Lipoprotein (Fluviicoccus keumensis), 107 residues
Amino acid sequence: MVKTIVRIGAMTALFAFLTGCGDAPVDVSLESSTTGNGSRVVISSRVDDVELQGFSINRGNCRGSFFEKGRHLKFGQISKIFASCNPENVKEVEVKTDQGEFTFSFD
C-alpha cells in the first residue's frame, strides 16, 4: 500500500514538472488596440529576470509585431506585442523564453 502511494506521488510530481503546473515565468493578458484595429498582447514578468525569445499567436494564424525580441524583463516589467487580430479572436499565445516555452489559452 505504501509503495503504491509513493509511486502515485512520484508520477504526480513528474507530471507536474513536465507540464509546468502554472510555473511560467511570465503572465499574458490581452488589450484592445487604442486605434481600434487589432489588439495588444501584454507579457509581464513574474520572476527576477526572463529573456523573451519569441512568440506565436493562434498557432501562427495571427500576425504580431515583436519589437523587443531578446529583451530581458525584470519582475513586474512588461512587453507588448501588437497583433493583427481582434482580442476576442485570440485563443492562444505561446511565449518562448530562456526558461522554456509556455502556452496561454483564452476563451
